[in-house]
Every structure is written in C-alpha cells, then in structure tokens.
C-alpha cells in the first residue's frame, strides 16, 4: 500500500472531516485528497486574521471555489487572544489552541465528525509549540498518520496538478518578530507589505525578519544576484515603510530562524 493509499484509507475511515485550510502546500493537498475521497462530507475551515497575509486568504478561497469545495471563513482577532500580542515563545500554542477550539465548534455546527490539519512528518522534528494544542484538542493529522514528508507531498501535488506543488513554504506573520516583542496590527501589516514588495519582484521563498527598526531579508542563496540587482529600489521601498536599516542575511532563507536554539 502506498502512502497515498494509506492516507485515503485513513480519511475514508473518518467519515466526514473539517479541514483546517490555509491554502499552503500541505493543507491544499490534504483538502484535495479528502474531497476526492469523501466528496460533500468535507468542509474547509479557513481563519482570517492579522497573522495571515491577504494573498494567502485569497488563494485559499480561489482554490475552494474552483474545486467546488464548501468553505467557511472564520474571522478571528488573534491579538485579543490572551498572551498572544506579547509574542511569548509559546505564542503558536496559545493561538492554535484558540483557533482550533473555534474550528471544533464549527465542525460540530456543520455536522463534521472530526477536524483534521496538515502537519507532516517534517513538522515532528522542528520547534512547533502549536503541535501541543493540536494534541490536547485531539485534532487529527492525517499526513502524519500516513507517514508523509514535505518532499513527498510536493511530488504527489505535482502529479495531481495542484497549483501549490512548488509554492514557497509559508508561516504566520508573527514568526517574523523576535520573541518578546509586542505585536501590533501596524507591525504585522508593515511586514506583509515588505514581503509583498519582494514577491512582486520575482523573489520566491523569503522572509522579512524584523529586529526593531531593522529589516533582515532571508531569501534563497540562488536569488542573491536578483535581489542585489534591485538593492537600491528594495532598500528605498522598505525604508519608506519606516525601516531605518535593510539587510540581506548571508545565511539565506531558513525556516524557524527566530526559534530558540
């Protein structure tokens, strides 16, 4: 039995599922397979909040519309969740716990048996405080149950012609800030605008990490020449967003670079 077959069998056994759907590589793959297996017994649940770039919300909505998948968009003011705006090391736990509580409520309201989410095997090896909330609330993780890794999910997504198969990995905008720095709507909007500037200039996998009034750009090393050819324009655009300093991280993009060592 292939891992894809194992995933389908697992989902079939759940009967009906509400999928926590962000529009990223993993949740898009999970949602599509779930819909292929369970049809109308699938509901996509998408959180709209300040931690999610608007471009991601738009892409998630477009995918559901094109594939005729029912979607409920849940509005959440994450900065009002107790403790979150202080950006502690367990911020992801606090946020995920509150969001998934609401997803559980919506799943019950729409008569879905369980809530599932898109963590994969690689996520079990990284610093992921949110995984604790998922475990506590007994949210199912079908991709982990099937033993799927990110590279395998991308390859299967490519074979299924999913638009996300080579989509850069995404993380919530709060991950751009040093733990302990107070999060505000303005700061989150500013970093989203900064990253949009880079994306519109053809840079793909990236982060703009914020250290006070300094913007630290992380991109793939192979994209260094492209960014350097645009350095004056990008520096000017980011400084117009009120950053005093704009730097390129010579180590390049790396997921979780703000996490504790």
Segments where pLDDT lies below 50 for 5+ residues?
A: none
CATH class of the largest domain: Alpha Beta
Kindly estimate the percentage of residues that lie in beta strands according to DSSP.
Answer: 5-15%
Number of discrete domains: 2
Helix-strand sequence: HEHEHEHEHHHHEEHHE
Work out the helix count.
Answer: 10
CATH-defined superfamily of the largest domain: HUPs
- The class by helix and strand makeup works out as alpha/beta
Q: How much helical structure, as a percent, in the residues? A: 40-55%
**How is the largest sheet built, in terms of strand order?**
3-2-1-4
Average pLDDT taken over every residue: 94
Q: What's the β-strand tally?
A: 7
CATH architecture tag of the largest domain: 3-Layer(aba) Sandwich
Query: Per the principal axes of the C-alpha atoms, what is the gross shape?
Result: globular
The main sheet comes to: 4 strands, parallel
Instruction: Please compute the radius of gyration using only Cα atoms.
Output: 19 Å
CATH topology of the largest domain: Rossmann fold
């Amino acid at each position: 039995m292939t891992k894809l077959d194992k995933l389908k069998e697992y989902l079939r056994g759940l009967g009906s599922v509400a999928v926590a759907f962000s529009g990223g590589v993993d949740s898009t793959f999970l949602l599509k397979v779930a819909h292929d297996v369970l049809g109308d017994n699938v509901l996509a649940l998408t959180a709209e909040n300040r931690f999610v770039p608007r471009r991601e919300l738009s892409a998630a909505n477009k995918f559901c519309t094109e594939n005729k998948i029912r979607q409920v968009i849940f509005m959440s003011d994450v900065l009002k969740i107790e403790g979150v705006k202080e950006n502690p090391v367990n911020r992801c736990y606090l946020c995920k716990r509150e969001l998934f509580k609401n997803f559980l409520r919506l799943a019950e309201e729409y008569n879905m048996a369980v809530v599932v989410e898109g963590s994969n095997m690689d996520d079990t090896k990284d610093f992921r405080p949110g995984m604790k909330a998922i475990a506590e609330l007994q949210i199912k993780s079908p991709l982990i149950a099937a033993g799927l890794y990110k590279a395998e999910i991308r390859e299967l997504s490519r074979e299924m012609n999913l638009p996300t198969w080579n989509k850069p990995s995404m993380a919530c905008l709060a991950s751009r800030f040093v733990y302990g720095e107070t999060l505000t709507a303005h700061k989150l909007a500013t970093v989203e605008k900064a990253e949009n500037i880079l994306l519109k200039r053809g840079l793909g996998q990236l982060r703009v990490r914020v250290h006070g009034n300094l913007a630290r750009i992380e991109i793939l090393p192979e994209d260094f020449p492209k960014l350097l050819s645009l350095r004056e324009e990008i520096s000017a655009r980011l400084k117009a967003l009120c950053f005093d300093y704009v730097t390129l991280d010579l180590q390049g993009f790396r997921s979780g670079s703000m996490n504790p060592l």
